[in-house]
Amino acid sequence: MVSAYLPVFVMVVFAFVMAVGLFLASWFLGKVKGSKTELMPYECGLDPMDAPFKRVSVRYYVVALLFLLFDVETLFLFPVAAVFRERTAMGWGFFVYGEMLVFLAILLVGYVYALKKGALRWE
To answer: Over its length of 123 residues, how does the chain's per-residue pLDDT go in tens digits?
Structure first.
């Protein structure tokens, strides 16, 4: 029984040794300090016109998060569409159609909520 776990133990030890070894190698080999010019952001060969790190408006993150949310939710519609014909032949067509309508209603409620909160308003 113990011999069955030996390959797993060897793999865990190997992964740990490899991670520590690579970390130490980067620590010792990567101690190169760049000059001030090398650390400046590159702007097409010109001197930087502004600070290298600007604050980004939170609206960009909200729009990106909403996009990801609704994009992933629409991905869940593809499996329903893939099995719709098969389920209709089995007599489950109304159930699958109703399930899809409930899902779209929840998606619509989320969209209306985002509109009411002003998440998509750009001012």
So the answer is: 678 889 999 999 999 999 999 999 998 888 777 777 777 766 676 666 676 677 778 888 888 988 998 898 888 888 888 888 888 889 888 888 898 899 999 999 988 999 899 888 887
Question: Minimal CA–CA distance to 53: which of 63, 38, 39?
Answer: 39
Q: What is the DSSP letter of 119?
A: T
Structure tokens at 101: 């309508």
pTM: 0.52
Q: Give per-residue burial for 73-100: e unless 16+ CB within 10 Å, then b.
A: eeeeeeeeeeeeeebeeeeeeeebeeee
